[in-house]
Specification:
Blueprint (H helix, E strand, L loop, with lengths): L3 E3 L2 E3 L1 H6 L9 H6 L11 E2 L6 E2 L2 H31 L5 E8 L5 E8 L8 E9 L4 E5 L5 E5 L4 E5 L2 E5 L4 E5 L6 E5 L5 E8 L14
Parallel strand pairs: 5-12
Antiparallel strand pairs: 1-2, 3-4, 5-6, 7-14, 8-13, 9-12, 9-14, 10-11, 10-13
Length: 212
Amino acid sequence: MTSERRNSTIVSPSVRAAGVWPVTLIGTAAYEAMVYKRAELGRPRWTGFHGRYQMTSTTRFLVCGAFVVGFGLGWAVNLDQGAVGAQAPHKPFMMKRIYTGTDGLSHVEDIELNAQSVLEKLTGARVSVSQPGSFSDWHVGPERRYIINLTGGGQLQVAEGKVDLPAGSIEFIDDLTGKGHTTANVGKEPRVSIQFQLANQQQVIGPLGNKK
């Protein structure tokens, strides 16, 4: 195998073809044993005998640019969402009251809950769990009660149609007479709720509006 000398360093044709030259004076075998890798963007600079390479200025520029662009997009999205949230009007929290109308059918009305709301006195509480797919056909409420849904999946049907009950929703069952309503768990998980019995069991016919 032919070779040539460059500054007293033996360089073989295979090394010379690679287009790189040793930094220190080493033997041919040790020099050729080193691994020279080429990056997709430019040739990395060899920095030692342990296979470490530096990124070229072009590669560093592109990597830094990617971080800057990603951070900028994330900041812009968060800023836009914050602006939309700040401009959105306040949405009051509503309780679903199920009541019997003068037509004998069960209806639903939304009653706003706020710091001025006056709730009825309670006499007891219990936890209720219904499995996915459970269904109770038309029935009236067994008693006047508040129901706080800890999980979603609940669904009632009244004269107006189906009423979805997501997690965190509150029901006021007040349809003790008439046709009643249906109850179902349309979710994929057990429906867990807390039911509070009211001290006053005198049914109120018709809507209450926003009096409570």
